[in-house]
Amino acid sequence: MSQLSSPAPRRSQRDRKQAKNFISVQHPSKKRRRQDVDSASDEEMEDLADEMPSSEDSDTEKDDAYKAAPVVRKTAARGRGRPKGSVATTRKPRVAKAKAPSRPKKIREVEEDAAADTPGVAKDVAISDDNVLFNALLNPSAALQSTAEDFLDSFEQSAEPALADVINCILRACGCNASVNSDEATDSDGVVDTLETLMEDAKKQTTQPYPLVSKLPAFRKFRRSISELFHRLVSASAELGILYDSDLIPTLQTWLVPMSSAQLRSFRHTATVIALDLESALAEVAAEVEKEAEVVRRQLDAERKKRGGGRAGKATPRENELEGKAQEVKARRTKMTEYLKEFFDGVFMNRYRDHDPGIRAECVHEMGVWLKKHPAHFLDGNYLRYVGWVLSDTNTHVRLEAVKALTSLYAKPDYLVSLHHFTERFKPRLVKMATSDVDVAVRVAVIGVLGAIEAQGLLEEEQREQLCLLVFDTEAKVRRAVAGPVRTVWEEAVAARLVGKKAGAKEKQRAGVKSLAELLLRWAKALERGHGGIEQEESQEEGPEKPKEIAALMSGSMKGRVALCVEALWDEVEAVQDWEALLEQLLMDHSAEVGSGVGGPSPVSKRRKMGKKKADDNVVDEVWRLEEVEEAVLLEVLLAALRKALAEAQAGKKSDEEAVQTEMTRVLIKALPRLFVKHQSDEGRIADVLLIPQLMNLDMYLEMSLVTAYETLWDDVSKQFLSHSSSTVLQNAISTIRHLVSATSLSNTNSSKIVELEDELSSSLRDAIAGRHELEIVTFTEDEVHALGAIAARIATLFGSRDLTRWMEEDEGGKQSSAWDIISALAERGRLGDKQEEKMIDQVLQILALHITWKARGLTAEVDPPPEQEQFRESLREQRDSLLEKLTEYAVGSQSTPSEGVKRAAFHSLLSIHILFGKPPTLASGNLRSPLLSLPLEMAEDVQLRCAAFVQAEIERYAEELEQEADGGGKSDGDDTVQGESDSEEDEGRGGAKQKKAKKAKKAKAKKVVEKDGTPDPPTLSQHMLEREYIFSSIASTFLRAIRTGAIDVQHCVVLLAHFGRLGTTFDQCAKVIVEVLREEGMYKGNGEAVAQVITQALQESFDLYMDGSAKTEAHSIALAKALAAALVIRGAHLSITRRLDSPHVVEIHEKCMSWILKRIAGYENNKNKTMKAKAIEFFRVLLPLLLTVERGEAQDIKKRLDSEIELGKFEISATSKVWEPQRAYEKRLVTALSKSLCPTTAAPGRGKKAAIHKSAEQIATDDERDHTDAPDVGMSSPPRPPPRPKPRPKARPTRKGKTTPDAEAEADRDGQEQEPTSEAPVTDAEKPVAARNSASSSPLSDAPPSRKRPRDEGDDENAEVAGDGGEGERRDALTDLAQHQPTEQPSSPGSQASISEFKSRRKRARR
């Protein structure tokens, strides 16, 4: 029988005391030990015992305060955790465990002493220490179970003072020092008025973070402590019966419900947390009552059966007793249901859509706790729908809490029936979250939920496929999370393939391999369809023709899609781990039909000649027969499985690694020749086979006396290298050749084989041009061009990893032409501009550049070199100059018309050679001299200009392609729409409207491609555009590298800077390197004039893009100005400025820019072109970021020039004109720069307090709210300046009436951060109460998720207006007066000092 059924509390042995206020005494002898103290050593326990006061001191404390009678305590009551059960047991003596402490003793003692000093903590945080319950929460040594029991003793004696204590504890938790008395605590009708008074008092206090959000060490465990206290309070009151027949819970509800809708966040957040914790504790008690009711019902049914079922008769005493008990339990269950409903309706239904995401997350988290503790009540559609609604919350943490709540539910199969309706309703949303949520943790958690749903067969086939496609996701955590559902699908596929067959272990293994290949292939095709199947197919068809920049990315060292999938499925799918089974099935001949052979006897005849078992192993059944595409996929799986097996062995012992690699080598030595023979005709498959030897231990060939097999391996690799032209095959073959050459034990074989390979390349080159003269102009057939391109590609690939300079210059004593002469002659064909020869010329130019690079290694730094070195230098100079002449002509020349690919290749090689032979960086030792200085090289100025023009052309071409990609052919669609509407207006009246809507949606979708600063969003680009972006980035980075090394003058970087912010984040990251170059040039090399010229020209050209319509907004120019502002200063610790660009150059930047734009404005004004004039004035917004670091003298010079230019241009600038707002913002920033240095002492006193208030408010604000609390930039969105009032001289104005105190303004500022952003027009101050009432009118029980509502914060009306103004009008007028009355030549004159004095006074009033 449960203790909950006891009619009276089991504390009759205690003596009743006279009614007095609750005072909890924490006896030192009964201090609660935390887990780390429990695990302390015996010596630490002795130290703690020595620190305890004597028993006399304890007796004195007992006499002075309320003494609680001895009570039977739970064993678990000594810990900080929540009690697990309801059975009370006698406390046993503690036995210290000899276990190492989790933290050092000294550090732990210091932390505990600091935290236990409650008065000191209260003084530091400005919270009163007059409440015993709140002090217990701050004391980590306090036993909260004892505190709760002592409170209930006091509550039994006198309820009203005890209720006042607990309400005051809640107020202290809110950071409020005001208190309520017994009458106010129990006056339910006056709670709202009392709360308003308390909040007004709280606003007058010093703004401090309240305990729940404070970062102070004293409040580190406050959230857990307050939850534990109220949980223990509810649990203990339920054991005593106080919970059901007292005013404890009703009083708490009366206070917490209105507090949870309070205007101050501290009250609202704290009350919500406590109410949710009370609901959790009540749910646990309600679950116990529910279990007790079920037990009593069963007992009553059993007793009735004993009496004779439904026969009439007098009930037995036992039956009467059980019936009475059942009525009592029913009454308690009804009471608990009322409590749960009142807290849910009054708190949760309003706060789960609070504007603060922290409060929303608290609500959703506790909902998950309720679902676990009391599923009989909360596992219902009326409660589950709230969890489903917050799955679409904008905050990541809230969505994650909702998914965690569902995870615990779906983990229990018994709940699936109750969750069926919820699953069907929100299943699409869960799938969408798993595939496209922005947070990885949310996606992983949702995949776990969908895995549980899939285990019950509740997902549709399309949804299962979407879930399985995540095995190819870019996030490793997502791939690992989806491995479980993939394994389920794979097992089903294997079972379906073996239906009707009596399959053994071997058959199941082969069917598993077949199913794995089939699934991977099907999912890969589905993924390609989902990401633009047509484009993918086209890109695959054009694979061999990809530029070399893209082909370089497809090297064997990069992990492909299948390799990442294998790593994710390694621990889940058995077929992935068994690489030997994969290899065995790949070696089988899957082209022969069952029962018939190819070129020999059928399998049936073989079965008669050899044993039946061996014959069965060689027969390919239709169940596991592989298609060619499936074999290609399985080869990738095999390669990834071999790598993973080695990686797993490397993570273990060294002996395990050697054993695994040795066994792997033994198997592959026999299998590799067969794999080469079987897959040599397919480029994709042979590329994977070529990578397998790199995983072998080549010394095994010598140990096993298989040198002949090693030579065969060399021959196979060389054969593939000499017979294929695919860049992927060539790269993989060369990497394998490097691995073979690294085997020193087989160096003789390696040397002979590499020489044979070079001879084969030389012979193939000469055979290809045999009988041809004048290679520069001779006509080649298409096959000959292809053959020469393949030979050049092989030479270039081998040249990239091996020095072939001697091979290139070998001419056998003049008997034949050298490879250098042949390849140079072929390079001359680049002038013809033949598109078919583009790939060949590209490879030829690369070979020549590699030859120069390798040969430069032979240079020496000798000043007087020997004749051999002189001859070597002269030969290298001739070859280099000859090549540079070709490269210059092809890249930036005008005498020939090479193709685009040849131009790019020549541009890369041209700059690379100039970088190599340019001015080297300073060496570590001054005595050292670079060998490259013996052949110095400098690029001519006209060549630099033409290189910059080449980069400009590439930028314009790429920008046009980006625009077309963003528009998606919108122009042609729009033309078709207009034509359709003009053709038939009657028939397509409604259709035209639909087309307009579709067009608007299309434009909106296109806008999403571009970020706020005009940068395209990289994930939305197609594969073609990603490849194009990589090629373009390689050109930009090469040009930037030349600027960085000094090969090209820094003034040419304007070409890149002008397009900052509009060509993607990759380009912007490259362009930011220029800022470092400019900073170094201006402040370390003394080239400030060039820096000023670059910045000025870059800003002007960038803004010209906006003026001529190439850019839709000036956002990219503003982003450029912000980036260039970093080139004007060097910052040190704490953002302090340690170095500046010289003032004349800073002023020069502004003066030139102002003169340039004001001339253009004057021209537009004369032409009456208002649109262009308005666009030109926006340039002042671009100049605003450059004013952030100007000094007073610089600002003064700039202000003079601005005034003179405006006067010279005779511009009429109205103070209320919206068009001239950027110019006024620029001028205002100048005046602000003047005032900073003018009166540094005036702004000091008030700034500290305001900064402290802002800091505390920032600590309270959440992530979403910080986006709204940031003050707008002065130049971005400052309101129009009102016209200045005529004043002959500045006079002091009286303080504005109606202003609130600074504390109230700070509170209004803080609370004003909670305004919810909407897509509609902003609500004015007068309309805010109406908007709040409208948002609260939606029913929380409707089918659709109600709109998020929030109580109207204090300060939303008149206080918000005062806080929002902040004295801005007075400050603005003061700054204007200062600018007007500031002397230019004698700043220390009496008039100037009077202006300064007046400015100081106005600044003080403005801060107030």
From TrEMBL:
Q: Residue limits of the SCD domain?
A: 348-433
**One GO location term (cellular component):** cohesin complex
Superkingdom, according to UniProt?
Eukaryota
- The Polar residues compositionally biased stretches are 1379-1398
Record InterPro entries: ARM-like, ARM-type_fold, Cohesin_Scc3/SA, HEAT_SCC3-SA, SCD, STAG
Q: Which GO terms describe its molecular function?
A: chromatin binding
Instruction: Please list the residue ranges that the record marks as compositionally biased, kind Basic and acidic residues.
Output: 316-328
Q: Which Gene3D superfamilies match?
A: Leucine-rich Repeat Variant
- Compositionally biased region (Acidic residues): 39-62, 975-988
Protein name per Swiss-Prot or TrEMBL: SCD domain-containing protein
Provide ranges: composition bias, Basic residues: 91-106, 993-1007, 1284-1299
| Gene Ontology terms: biological process | sister chromatid cohesion
Q: Where is the composition biased (Low complexity)?
A: 1331-1345
According to the record, the residues making up region (Disordered) are 1-119, 303-328, 962-1022, 1239-1408
